[in-house]
Amino acid sequence: MSLDRREFLKLTGLFGLGIGVSGVNLLLRSRVDAREFVTPSGSLIAKRWAMVVDIRKFRTAEDYKRVIDACHSIHNVPDFGNKKDEVKWIWTEEFEHAFPGQQNRYLPEWVIEKPFLLLCNHCDHPPCVRVCPTKATFKRKDGIVMQDPHRCIGCRFCMAACPYGSRSFNWRDPRPFIKKRNPEYPTRQIGVVEKCTFCAERLAQGLEPACVEKSNGAIIFGDLADPNSEVRRVLSNHYTIRRKPELGTQPSVFYIIGGEENA
Amino acid sequence: MLEKALSGSRRYWTWIIILLILIGIGFINYLRQFKLGLGITGMSRDVSWGFYISQFTFLVGVAASAVMLVIPYYLHNYKKFSKIVILGEFLAVASVTMCLLFIFVDMGQPMRILNVILHPTPNSILFWDALVLNGYLFLNIVIGWATLHAEKKGIPPAPWVKPLIYISIPWAISIHTVTAFLYAGLPGRHFWLTAIMAARFLASAFASGPALLLIVALLVRKYTKFDPGREPIQAVGKIVTYAMITNVFFFLLEIFTAFYSNIPGHKHSFEYLFAGYEGYGKLVPLMWLSIILAIISLILLINPGTRKNEKTLVIAALAVFFSLWIDKGFGLVIGGFIPNPFETVTEYWPTLPETFITIGVWAIGFLILTILYKVVISVRESIGNLEAEH
Amino acid sequence: MYDGGKIIPGLIIFLLIITYPFYTNIGKPVAEIKPDLKTPEIERLEVKECVEPKAFMRAEHMKLLNEWRDSAVRDGNRVYINSKGKNYQISLQKTCLRCHSNRDKFCKVCHTYAGVKPYCWNCHFAKQEGKG
């Protein structure tokens, strides 16, 4: 059989059309009608989530530990026991390390020595989101900077970009290093980045973030866009500072340092 | 033409086998890393990029430097480069391949690497870097192969090659600019946050790349019948001289800004690298070695007598290459992470498996380079034989 | 043809190698795959139905899971309204694996047969793993 050019083109066209139709068919086959994805009723909703850490109210080592343990045990954060592989979502640093450049040696002793609680700042302009090549880290409409561990390729560009050291990488398999597993929350696997999520999964259940719940009122959480919210009330009544404001990231975690009552 | 790489002398095959063994060792170690995670490297929460990414950064420069041969030959009609311009292009091919491999071995989840294409994110510099690197690889393979093929047949290259060559010139600049932007756009990493980063990258690239080319060209002359000629090598030597002077100048500019302004954040990494910071100074000896090599190279390069003498010129080229390898293939990336955002120090040193993987990738690069150069040389030798017969 | 003596035997050897699975399996019975649906949790259900019809789930559960994943993690929509209008919490651990508490006899049976290794359980706990 010999084909002339015209016939050959016709056949090729038909063949292509066939592939196209079956492709579309494949796509449509998977559809089930009338499905929807919605936000759970009763979930906590805000335009711009923010947090105020009232450092005055953290008095004993136990106050910090309770908050940190709550977060790390709920989220199956592993404890490798060494600094190299360390994974942490919320932790403490001294003032000079939490706010480098703002320390001076004449500060009150309690400021110099007091541990500050640090976590992801959920910035308005997060550099980590800017650099991520796969949108594995992204900013939600309510301001939460999320990490999608399913999509993360482990390039660690976000870790280089974050000026707050908020991100941890799973250098090894974290599972053997989780002391007590929370079966309600997944772990992470080798080779992905993780960090604080402002407890997005708890907000969806109508619960405040774990650290807020366990802080006995020392951490205030709420909607920055709502002038009547508690965070706004606290912010308008106290002098607060944020970490590295000069970088323009606009952190949404604020700190009340206070003074007199501790002096 | 590729079949020409399949027949060679005993020395050629010994070299190939050595490379294959190194690749094998690297691969076995990579399989271990693949299974156990990047925890087998020296990287940490604080120094989250290490040897792999710094090799990548250094090699982007070597790749980009092909343009230093392409510009004189194709734009200024400098005919003496006609024999070595293809060596530059194929050096670029080998280097870019190594770059891509170094990015790959650095991934925590390498199986998902196509997510970069599946979820394209133009606001990420890494996305653009992947684009320009792959484009540059493609350009150099096509250009190199097409011109060599034409040379073999004794005809001028096809007309479509010229536009590709012209495109490859700004493209070379782009790969190193984009790579510099990976670093220079990050808030809070003072060491990298400098507008001169891309320029400094290019200057060091145009010194280290041609220096390597010069060394390889002399090796080619020593072990094969193909002689690149004395004059082109002298010309490359001059390119290295200018670029190295510019590079050192840019480095001194950084030092001035950091230390005259006296801003602590801008000084810290320099202090860590060259003097030690808060008692930590693992990289200090290495960084000073880099400086000493740079000084030696400048003395040998600037002095016309030693530059014109090929024996001292090759020493200068080696000094340039290793000085810049330490500077960019080590200090620049590691130094940016020290001190960390809390102004505390976690030091870094590559582990053994990490070193083997790194050597393995370099060996792959040299294997590609050897095969491509072998093809070039065999083609040249057969042309030479034909001419001799006539 | 140049080197026909090498090329043709080479091609034949190549064909023999790549068709190896076919001619070694001719006539052999097809392995039966029976995912086990009997778990205490499913037995307890009054209406024994999944989030979508069985045929759909069998063919498309991986796509549905991908949609669930993106919806919950990326859009924050953690409730799924199925084709019958019924609501489910979007959670692999709390919804899917609550009923299918027998990963090894349910999920793994087909996955092993099909030779796929989804990485779900690198992070998400199968029921029996959650303790301790």
Write up this protein:
Chain A is α+β, with helices and mostly antiparallel strands. Chain A has a single domain (49-262), classed as Alpha-Beta Plaits (2-Layer Sandwich). Chain A has 9 helices and 11 strands. Chain B has one domain (42-211, 228-350): Formate dehydrogenase/DMSO reductase fold, CATH 1.20.1630.10. The model of chain B has no long low-confidence stretch (mean pLDDT 93). By secondary structure, chain C is mainly alpha-helical. Chain C has a domain at 100-132. Helices cover 52% and strands 5% of the residues of chain C. Chain C has helices at 4-18, 20-25, 40-44, 54-75, 92-99, 107-114, 120-123; strands at residues 79-81, 87-89. Chain C has a two-stranded antiparallel sheet. The longest helix of chain C has 22 residues, at 54-75. Chain C is elongated and about 70 Å long. The relative contact order of chain C is 0.11. Chains in contact: A-B, A-C. At the A-B interface, α3, α5, α6 and β7 of A face α5 and α6 of B.
Give short descriptive properties of this protein.
heterotrimer; A: 263 residues; alpha+beta; Alpha-Beta Plaits; 4-stranded mixed beta sheet; two-stranded antiparallel ribbon; C: 132 residues; mainly alpha; 5% strand; elongated
Task: Write a compact overview of the structure shown.
The complex is a heterotrimer of chains A (263), B (390) and C (132). Chain A is α+β, with helices and mostly antiparallel strands and 263 residues long.
